[in-house]
Amino acid sequence: MDSSNPPEIARIATLTAIVLMLAVAGIAGVGAVQFVDSAAALSSADSDVDAYAPSKTIEPGTTSTLSVQLANDASVEYGAPAERDRVTMVRNVVIEEYDTKGAPVTVETGTQSIGSISENKPVSVPIKIDVPENAAPGTYEMELKIRFTTTDQLGGEEQELNKLEDETITFEISDDPQFELTRGDNSQLRADENSLLDLNVKNTGGETAQDVAVSLSSQSAELIFSGGKGAVARIDSLAPGETAEVTYEVAVGANAPARLYELNGAASYTDAQGIDGRDEDLSVGAEVAPRRDDFSVAMDESVVTVGSSRLMTVEVTNNRDQRLTDIEASLGTSDPLDSDDDSGYIAALDPGESDTVTFELSATGDANPKTYAAAVDFRYDDARGISRMSETYQLPVDVETDDGMELASISPLTIVIVLAAAAAVYGAAVYARAKPERLPWR
Protein backbone atom coordinates (compact mmCIF):
# COMPACT_ATOMS: atom_id res chain seq x y z
CA MET A 1 0.00 0.00 0.00
CA ASP A 2 1.27 3.43 -0.94
CA SER A 3 1.28 5.51 2.27
CA SER A 4 1.96 8.65 0.23
CA ASN A 5 -1.70 8.87 -0.89
CA PRO A 6 -3.91 9.50 2.25
CA PRO A 7 -7.21 9.75 0.30
CA GLU A 8 -6.59 6.32 -1.22
CA ILE A 9 -5.83 4.88 2.26
CA ALA A 10 -9.03 6.40 3.64
CA ARG A 11 -11.03 4.93 0.76
CA ILE A 12 -9.66 1.44 1.40
CA ALA A 13 -10.28 1.76 5.13
CA THR A 14 -13.88 2.77 4.51
CA LEU A 15 -14.41 -0.21 2.19
CA THR A 16 -13.09 -2.49 4.88
CA ALA A 17 -15.45 -0.96 7.42
CA ILE A 18 -18.41 -1.43 5.08
CA VAL A 19 -17.62 -5.11 4.60
CA LEU A 20 -17.44 -5.62 8.34
CA MET A 21 -20.69 -3.75 8.89
CA LEU A 22 -22.49 -5.83 6.26
CA ALA A 23 -21.16 -9.00 7.84
CA VAL A 24 -22.46 -7.96 11.23
CA ALA A 25 -25.76 -6.98 9.64
CA GLY A 26 -26.12 -10.46 8.21
CA ILE A 27 -25.92 -11.83 11.73
CA ALA A 28 -28.12 -9.20 13.30
CA GLY A 29 -31.03 -9.76 10.88
CA VAL A 30 -33.32 -6.75 10.93
CA GLY A 31 -30.46 -4.33 11.58
CA ALA A 32 -29.05 -5.14 8.13
CA VAL A 33 -31.52 -2.82 6.45
CA GLN A 34 -30.10 0.17 8.25
CA PHE A 35 -26.50 -0.74 7.26
CA VAL A 36 -27.43 -1.15 3.60
CA ASP A 37 -29.05 2.28 3.63
CA SER A 38 -25.83 3.74 4.99
CA ALA A 39 -23.78 2.03 2.25
CA ALA A 40 -25.89 3.77 -0.40
CA ALA A 41 -24.22 7.02 0.62
CA LEU A 42 -20.81 5.57 -0.22
CA SER A 43 -19.72 5.71 -3.91
CA SER A 44 -16.41 5.10 -5.67
CA ALA A 45 -15.22 4.59 -9.27
CA ASP A 46 -11.99 3.65 -11.01
CA SER A 47 -11.50 6.37 -13.67
CA ASP A 48 -8.92 6.43 -16.44
CA VAL A 49 -8.26 8.77 -19.38
CA ASP A 50 -7.52 6.96 -22.64
CA ALA A 51 -6.01 8.68 -25.71
CA TYR A 52 -6.61 7.81 -29.37
CA ALA A 53 -5.59 9.33 -32.72
CA PRO A 54 -8.41 8.49 -35.19
CA SER A 55 -6.75 10.27 -38.16
CA LYS A 56 -3.12 9.55 -37.56
CA THR A 57 -1.42 10.37 -40.87
CA ILE A 58 0.71 13.51 -41.22
CA GLU A 59 2.65 14.73 -44.25
CA PRO A 60 6.38 15.48 -44.59
CA GLY A 61 7.34 19.08 -45.17
CA THR A 62 4.29 20.43 -43.33
CA THR A 63 3.16 21.66 -39.96
CA SER A 64 0.25 19.29 -39.36
CA THR A 65 -2.42 19.17 -36.70
CA LEU A 66 -2.92 15.73 -35.18
CA SER A 67 -6.38 15.40 -33.64
CA VAL A 68 -6.28 13.30 -30.45
CA GLN A 69 -9.40 12.07 -28.65
CA LEU A 70 -9.39 11.81 -24.85
CA ALA A 71 -12.01 9.40 -23.48
CA ASN A 72 -13.09 8.71 -19.90
CA ASP A 73 -12.85 4.95 -19.31
CA ALA A 74 -14.44 4.67 -15.84
CA SER A 75 -15.95 1.75 -13.92
CA VAL A 76 -18.03 2.06 -10.72
CA GLU A 77 -16.69 -0.02 -7.83
CA TYR A 78 -19.66 0.57 -5.52
CA GLY A 79 -22.32 3.15 -4.75
CA ALA A 80 -25.76 4.38 -5.72
CA PRO A 81 -26.61 4.79 -9.45
CA ALA A 82 -27.54 8.41 -8.83
CA GLU A 83 -23.95 9.14 -7.88
CA ARG A 84 -22.42 7.47 -10.98
CA ASP A 85 -21.95 10.64 -13.07
CA ARG A 86 -20.33 12.46 -10.20
CA VAL A 87 -17.83 9.79 -9.21
CA THR A 88 -16.93 8.81 -12.79
CA MET A 89 -16.31 12.38 -14.01
CA VAL A 90 -12.64 13.29 -14.47
CA ARG A 91 -11.90 16.96 -13.94
CA ASN A 92 -9.03 19.41 -14.36
CA VAL A 93 -7.59 17.34 -17.20
CA VAL A 94 -4.22 18.69 -18.35
CA ILE A 95 -1.78 17.36 -20.96
CA GLU A 96 1.55 18.29 -19.43
CA GLU A 97 4.15 16.72 -21.71
CA TYR A 98 4.57 15.21 -25.19
CA ASP A 99 7.33 12.63 -25.62
CA THR A 100 7.92 11.83 -29.32
CA LYS A 101 10.27 8.96 -28.44
CA GLY A 102 12.79 9.74 -31.18
CA ALA A 103 10.29 10.32 -33.97
CA PRO A 104 11.57 12.83 -36.60
CA VAL A 105 9.03 15.48 -35.61
CA THR A 106 8.75 18.49 -33.32
CA VAL A 107 5.66 19.15 -31.20
CA GLU A 108 4.77 22.83 -31.38
CA THR A 109 1.88 22.63 -28.88
CA GLY A 110 2.56 23.33 -25.22
CA THR A 111 0.69 22.35 -22.06
CA GLN A 112 -3.06 22.10 -22.69
CA SER A 113 -5.82 22.45 -20.11
CA ILE A 114 -8.82 20.37 -21.22
CA GLY A 115 -11.33 20.75 -18.37
CA SER A 116 -13.74 17.91 -17.49
CA ILE A 117 -14.47 14.70 -19.41
CA SER A 118 -17.56 12.58 -18.76
CA GLU A 119 -18.01 8.90 -19.61
CA ASN A 120 -20.02 9.37 -22.80
CA LYS A 121 -18.46 12.57 -24.22
CA PRO A 122 -14.87 12.21 -25.47
CA VAL A 123 -12.94 15.43 -26.08
CA SER A 124 -10.87 16.19 -29.21
CA VAL A 125 -7.52 17.89 -28.61
CA PRO A 126 -5.37 19.37 -31.41
CA ILE A 127 -1.62 18.78 -31.32
CA LYS A 128 0.44 20.81 -33.79
CA ILE A 129 3.41 18.86 -35.16
CA ASP A 130 6.19 20.13 -37.40
CA VAL A 131 7.31 17.45 -39.87
CA PRO A 132 10.58 18.06 -41.76
CA GLU A 133 10.56 17.54 -45.51
CA ASN A 134 13.13 14.74 -45.22
CA ALA A 135 11.30 12.90 -42.41
CA ALA A 136 11.35 9.15 -43.03
CA PRO A 137 7.89 7.64 -43.67
CA GLY A 138 6.70 5.12 -41.10
CA THR A 139 4.69 4.54 -37.91
CA TYR A 140 5.79 6.30 -34.72
CA GLU A 141 4.66 6.64 -31.09
CA MET A 142 4.06 9.64 -28.87
CA GLU A 143 3.56 9.46 -25.10
CA LEU A 144 1.22 11.96 -23.45
CA LYS A 145 1.59 12.73 -19.75
CA ILE A 146 -1.97 13.47 -18.53
CA ARG A 147 -2.91 14.78 -15.07
CA PHE A 148 -6.54 14.79 -13.81
CA THR A 149 -8.74 14.71 -10.67
CA THR A 150 -11.53 12.28 -9.62
CA THR A 151 -14.01 12.29 -6.71
CA ASP A 152 -15.11 9.58 -4.25
CA GLN A 153 -18.26 9.90 -2.08
CA LEU A 154 -17.32 8.54 1.34
CA GLY A 155 -19.90 8.66 4.13
CA GLY A 156 -21.32 11.97 2.96
CA GLU A 157 -17.89 13.47 2.41
CA GLU A 158 -16.10 13.96 -0.92
CA GLN A 159 -12.53 12.82 -1.37
CA GLU A 160 -10.39 14.35 -4.17
CA LEU A 161 -7.94 12.01 -5.90
CA ASN A 162 -5.19 13.40 -8.16
CA LYS A 163 -3.84 11.08 -10.83
CA LEU A 164 -1.02 11.21 -13.38
CA GLU A 165 -1.10 8.78 -16.32
CA ASP A 166 1.02 8.13 -19.40
CA GLU A 167 -0.98 7.42 -22.55
CA THR A 168 0.65 6.35 -25.83
CA ILE A 169 -0.74 7.17 -29.27
CA THR A 170 0.57 6.10 -32.67
CA PHE A 171 0.82 8.23 -35.80
CA GLU A 172 2.14 7.78 -39.32
CA ILE A 173 4.36 9.92 -41.53
CA SER A 174 2.95 9.43 -44.99
CA ASP A 175 4.92 8.22 -47.99
CA ASP A 176 2.24 9.50 -50.39
CA PRO A 177 3.33 11.80 -53.22
CA GLN A 178 3.89 15.36 -52.03
CA PHE A 179 4.77 18.35 -54.17
CA GLU A 180 6.82 21.54 -54.01
CA LEU A 181 6.49 24.48 -56.42
CA THR A 182 9.33 26.88 -57.28
CA ARG A 183 9.73 29.57 -59.96
CA GLY A 184 11.81 28.88 -63.03
CA ASP A 185 14.94 30.92 -63.76
CA ASN A 186 13.34 33.01 -66.54
CA SER A 187 9.94 33.64 -65.01
CA GLN A 188 9.89 37.38 -64.46
CA LEU A 189 6.60 38.96 -65.47
CA ARG A 190 6.07 42.58 -66.51
CA ALA A 191 3.18 44.96 -66.09
CA ASP A 192 1.02 45.39 -69.21
CA GLU A 193 2.39 42.25 -70.85
CA ASN A 194 1.38 38.67 -71.58
CA SER A 195 4.18 36.41 -70.41
CA LEU A 196 5.01 32.75 -69.83
CA LEU A 197 5.41 31.66 -66.22
CA ASP A 198 7.69 28.62 -65.81
CA LEU A 199 7.36 26.55 -62.63
CA ASN A 200 9.36 23.60 -61.31
CA VAL A 201 7.23 20.86 -59.75
CA LYS A 202 9.09 18.44 -57.45
CA ASN A 203 7.72 15.22 -55.95
CA THR A 204 8.97 15.32 -52.34
CA GLY A 205 6.97 12.24 -51.29
CA GLY A 206 7.91 8.57 -51.14
CA GLU A 207 5.80 7.21 -54.03
CA THR A 208 5.56 7.83 -57.77
CA ALA A 209 2.68 10.06 -58.85
CA GLN A 210 0.86 9.44 -62.14
CA ASP A 211 -1.36 11.81 -64.14
CA VAL A 212 -0.34 14.84 -62.10
CA ALA A 213 -2.49 17.95 -62.61
CA VAL A 214 -1.03 21.12 -61.08
CA SER A 215 -3.57 23.93 -60.76
CA LEU A 216 -2.72 27.57 -60.02
CA SER A 217 -5.01 30.44 -59.12
CA SER A 218 -4.52 34.15 -58.54
CA GLN A 219 -6.31 36.30 -55.99
CA SER A 220 -5.26 39.54 -57.71
CA ALA A 221 -7.23 41.16 -60.52
CA GLU A 222 -3.92 42.50 -61.87
CA LEU A 223 -2.59 39.01 -62.59
CA ILE A 224 -4.75 36.53 -64.49
CA PHE A 225 -4.22 33.38 -66.51
CA SER A 226 -5.17 32.82 -70.13
CA GLY A 227 -8.31 30.96 -69.03
CA GLY A 228 -9.28 33.38 -66.26
CA LYS A 229 -8.18 33.40 -62.62
CA GLY A 230 -6.85 29.85 -62.76
CA ALA A 231 -5.04 27.38 -65.01
CA VAL A 232 -3.95 23.73 -64.97
CA ALA A 233 -0.74 22.11 -66.25
CA ARG A 234 -0.28 18.35 -66.53
CA ILE A 235 2.63 15.95 -65.96
CA ASP A 236 2.51 12.28 -67.00
CA SER A 237 4.59 10.91 -64.12
CA LEU A 238 6.82 12.10 -61.28
CA ALA A 239 9.03 9.71 -59.33
CA PRO A 240 10.13 10.51 -55.74
CA GLY A 241 12.68 13.35 -55.87
CA GLU A 242 12.01 14.04 -59.56
CA THR A 243 11.33 17.56 -60.88
CA ALA A 244 9.41 18.59 -64.00
CA GLU A 245 8.85 22.03 -65.54
CA VAL A 246 5.39 23.31 -66.47
CA THR A 247 4.41 26.57 -68.16
CA TYR A 248 1.42 28.88 -67.73
CA GLU A 249 0.38 31.87 -69.84
CA VAL A 250 -0.12 34.90 -67.62
CA ALA A 251 -1.46 38.38 -68.37
CA VAL A 252 -0.44 41.26 -66.09
CA GLY A 253 -2.45 44.48 -65.93
CA ALA A 254 -1.04 47.79 -67.16
CA ASN A 255 -1.32 49.30 -63.67
CA ALA A 256 -0.01 46.30 -61.74
CA PRO A 257 2.45 47.41 -59.02
CA ALA A 258 5.91 45.90 -59.26
CA ARG A 259 6.02 43.32 -56.43
CA LEU A 260 5.79 39.62 -55.59
CA TYR A 261 2.31 38.14 -56.14
CA GLU A 262 1.19 35.01 -54.28
CA LEU A 263 -0.30 32.19 -56.38
CA ASN A 264 -2.26 29.36 -54.74
CA GLY A 265 -1.71 25.83 -56.00
CA ALA A 266 -2.86 22.24 -55.66
CA ALA A 267 -1.80 18.95 -57.26
CA SER A 268 -4.07 15.99 -57.95
CA TYR A 269 -2.57 12.62 -58.89
CA THR A 270 -2.99 8.85 -59.00
CA ASP A 271 -0.67 6.75 -56.82
CA ALA A 272 0.93 3.38 -57.59
CA GLN A 273 -2.15 1.53 -56.26
CA GLY A 274 -4.47 3.47 -58.57
CA ILE A 275 -5.88 5.56 -55.73
CA ASP A 276 -6.53 9.22 -56.46
CA GLY A 277 -4.94 11.77 -54.14
CA ARG A 278 -4.59 15.51 -53.82
CA ASP A 279 -1.94 17.74 -52.25
CA GLU A 280 -3.53 21.00 -51.15
CA ASP A 281 -2.17 24.29 -49.84
CA LEU A 282 0.68 24.66 -52.33
CA SER A 283 1.87 28.17 -53.16
CA VAL A 284 4.47 29.98 -55.22
CA GLY A 285 5.40 33.63 -55.80
CA ALA A 286 5.31 35.40 -59.16
CA GLU A 287 7.62 38.42 -59.53
CA VAL A 288 6.17 41.32 -61.54
CA ALA A 289 8.58 43.95 -62.86
CA PRO A 290 7.63 47.54 -63.79
CA ARG A 291 6.15 48.26 -67.20
CA ARG A 292 8.87 48.76 -69.81
CA ASP A 293 8.87 51.17 -72.76
CA ASP A 294 7.08 49.86 -75.83
CA PHE A 295 9.91 50.95 -78.14
CA SER A 296 13.47 52.16 -78.09
CA VAL A 297 14.38 54.90 -80.60
CA ALA A 298 17.72 56.16 -81.92
CA MET A 299 18.77 58.80 -84.47
CA ASP A 300 22.28 58.53 -85.95
CA GLU A 301 22.51 62.04 -87.49
CA SER A 302 20.74 64.81 -85.61
CA VAL A 303 22.22 68.05 -87.03
CA VAL A 304 20.11 70.72 -88.78
CA THR A 305 21.56 73.90 -90.27
CA VAL A 306 20.09 77.29 -89.39
CA GLY A 307 17.55 78.32 -92.00
CA SER A 308 17.49 74.94 -93.75
CA SER A 309 15.80 71.54 -93.61
CA ARG A 310 16.86 67.91 -93.95
CA LEU A 311 15.56 64.33 -93.69
CA MET A 312 16.03 62.65 -90.32
CA THR A 313 16.01 58.82 -90.04
CA VAL A 314 14.88 57.29 -86.74
CA GLU A 315 15.47 53.62 -85.88
CA VAL A 316 12.56 52.03 -83.96
CA THR A 317 12.92 48.75 -81.99
CA ASN A 318 10.06 46.70 -80.52
CA ASN A 319 10.75 46.22 -76.78
CA ARG A 320 7.60 44.20 -76.11
CA ASP A 321 7.43 40.42 -75.94
CA GLN A 322 4.76 40.29 -78.64
CA ARG A 323 4.30 41.21 -82.30
CA LEU A 324 3.11 44.80 -82.82
CA THR A 325 1.34 45.91 -86.00
CA ASP A 326 0.11 49.08 -87.75
CA ILE A 327 2.72 51.22 -86.06
CA GLU A 328 2.09 54.90 -86.81
CA ALA A 329 4.86 57.31 -85.82
CA SER A 330 4.21 61.00 -85.16
CA LEU A 331 6.88 63.70 -84.78
CA GLY A 332 6.33 66.71 -82.54
CA THR A 333 8.38 69.93 -82.70
CA SER A 334 8.39 73.43 -81.27
CA ASP A 335 9.98 76.71 -82.42
CA PRO A 336 12.61 77.05 -83.86
CA LEU A 337 12.19 73.47 -85.16
CA ASP A 338 9.45 72.61 -87.63
CA SER A 339 8.42 69.77 -89.93
CA ASP A 340 6.40 69.51 -93.13
CA ASP A 341 6.55 65.70 -93.02
CA ASP A 342 5.98 64.59 -89.43
CA SER A 343 4.54 61.06 -89.78
CA GLY A 344 5.88 57.58 -90.50
CA TYR A 345 4.54 54.02 -90.72
CA ILE A 346 5.84 50.52 -89.97
CA ALA A 347 3.63 47.57 -90.88
CA ALA A 348 4.81 45.22 -88.10
CA LEU A 349 7.63 44.55 -85.66
CA ASP A 350 8.32 41.24 -83.95
CA PRO A 351 9.83 41.26 -80.43
CA GLY A 352 13.32 42.78 -80.65
CA GLU A 353 12.95 43.64 -84.35
CA SER A 354 13.95 47.11 -85.66
CA ASP A 355 12.92 49.28 -88.62
CA THR A 356 13.24 52.96 -89.57
CA VAL A 357 10.94 55.92 -90.18
CA THR A 358 11.99 59.17 -91.89
CA PHE A 359 10.87 62.71 -91.04
CA GLU A 360 11.62 66.13 -92.58
CA LEU A 361 12.99 68.58 -90.03
CA SER A 362 13.89 72.26 -90.42
CA ALA A 363 15.27 75.10 -88.33
CA THR A 364 14.24 78.74 -88.76
CA GLY A 365 16.72 81.33 -89.99
CA ASP A 366 16.87 83.09 -86.64
CA ALA A 367 17.50 79.91 -84.64
CA ASN A 368 20.29 80.05 -82.09
CA PRO A 369 22.86 77.32 -82.64
CA LYS A 370 22.33 74.83 -79.79
CA THR A 371 20.61 71.52 -78.96
CA TYR A 372 16.81 71.33 -79.08
CA ALA A 373 14.36 68.48 -78.46
CA ALA A 374 11.94 66.88 -80.89
CA ALA A 375 9.43 64.28 -79.67
CA VAL A 376 8.10 61.12 -81.28
CA ASP A 377 5.33 58.75 -80.19
CA PHE A 378 3.54 55.76 -81.70
CA ARG A 379 0.04 54.41 -82.05
CA TYR A 380 0.00 50.63 -82.63
CA ASP A 381 -2.03 47.43 -82.30
CA ASP A 382 -0.88 44.79 -79.82
CA ALA A 383 -1.07 41.02 -80.32
CA ARG A 384 -4.73 41.00 -79.23
CA GLY A 385 -5.65 43.69 -81.75
CA ILE A 386 -6.08 46.37 -79.08
CA SER A 387 -5.05 49.86 -80.19
CA ARG A 388 -2.52 51.47 -77.84
CA MET A 389 -0.49 54.66 -77.52
CA SER A 390 3.17 54.46 -76.60
CA GLU A 391 5.20 56.69 -74.35
CA THR A 392 6.65 59.90 -75.80
CA TYR A 393 10.35 59.70 -76.66
CA GLN A 394 12.63 62.75 -76.75
CA LEU A 395 15.10 63.14 -79.65
CA PRO A 396 18.00 65.63 -79.32
CA VAL A 397 18.49 67.87 -82.40
CA ASP A 398 21.62 70.02 -82.84
CA VAL A 399 21.14 73.31 -84.74
CA GLU A 400 24.34 74.73 -86.30
CA THR A 401 25.31 77.58 -88.64
CA ASP A 402 26.16 76.94 -92.28
CA ASP A 403 29.92 76.58 -91.73
CA GLY A 404 29.68 75.56 -88.19
CA MET A 405 31.11 78.93 -86.98
CA GLU A 406 29.34 82.27 -86.47
CA LEU A 407 30.88 85.56 -87.68
CA ALA A 408 29.91 87.21 -84.44
CA SER A 409 32.09 84.77 -82.58
CA ILE A 410 35.31 86.12 -84.33
CA SER A 411 37.17 88.70 -82.22
CA PRO A 412 37.75 92.27 -83.63
CA LEU A 413 41.55 91.87 -83.36
CA THR A 414 41.37 88.82 -85.60
CA ILE A 415 39.36 90.75 -88.16
CA VAL A 416 41.91 93.64 -88.14
CA ILE A 417 44.83 91.27 -88.60
CA VAL A 418 43.13 89.46 -91.46
CA LEU A 419 42.24 92.74 -93.21
CA ALA A 420 45.76 94.14 -92.72
CA ALA A 421 47.29 91.01 -94.15
CA ALA A 422 44.99 91.19 -97.15
CA ALA A 423 45.88 94.88 -97.71
CA ALA A 424 49.60 94.14 -97.53
CA VAL A 425 49.29 91.39 -100.09
CA TYR A 426 47.27 93.61 -102.38
CA GLY A 427 49.78 96.54 -102.04
CA ALA A 428 52.72 94.30 -102.80
CA ALA A 429 51.03 93.05 -105.93
CA VAL A 430 50.37 96.61 -107.18
CA TYR A 431 53.96 97.72 -106.46
CA ALA A 432 55.38 94.73 -108.31
CA ARG A 433 53.43 95.56 -111.41
CA ALA A 434 54.36 99.26 -111.34
CA LYS A 435 58.11 98.88 -110.76
CA PRO A 436 59.19 95.41 -111.59
CA GLU A 437 62.85 96.53 -111.99
CA ARG A 438 63.09 97.20 -108.25
CA LEU A 439 62.16 93.73 -107.19
CA PRO A 440 64.94 91.93 -105.35
CA TRP A 441 65.05 89.03 -107.74
CA ARG A 442 65.61 91.35 -110.71
Structure description:
The model is unreliable at 1-5, 22-43 and 404-409 (pLDDT under 50). Strands 20, 22, 24, 26, 27 and 28 form a 6-stranded mixed beta sheet that branches. The chain has a 5-stranded mixed beta sheet with strand order 2-9-8-4-6. It has a 5-stranded mixed beta sheet with strand order 11-18-17-13-15, with no helix packed on it. It has helices at residues 6-28, 32-39, 84-88, 412-434; strands at residues 44-52, 57-58, 62-78, 90-99, 106-107, 112-117, 123-131, 138-154, 157-173, 179-183, 189-190, 194-203, 209-218, 223-225, 230-238, 243-252, 260-270, 276-289, 295-299, 303-305, 309-318, 324-332, 337-341, 343-349, 354-363, 371-381, 387-389, 393-400. With 442 residues, the protein is mostly beta strands.
Helix count equals 4
Please state roughly what percent of the residues sit in beta strands, choosing from under 5%, 5-15%, 15-25%, 25-35%, 35-45% or over 45%: over 45%
Largest sheet: 6 strands, mixed
Average pLDDT taken over every residue:
83
Q: At CATH's second level, what is the architecture of the largest domain?
A: Sandwich
* CATH topology name of the largest domain: Immunoglobulin-like
The CATH superfamily title of the largest domain: Immunoglobulins
Helix share of residues? 10-25%
How far is the first residue's CA from the last residue's CA? 158 Å
Shape descriptor: rod-shaped
Number of strands: 28
CATH class of the largest domain: Mainly Beta
CA gyration radius, whole angstroms: 47 Å
List unreliable stretches of 5+ residues.
1-5, 22-43, 404-409
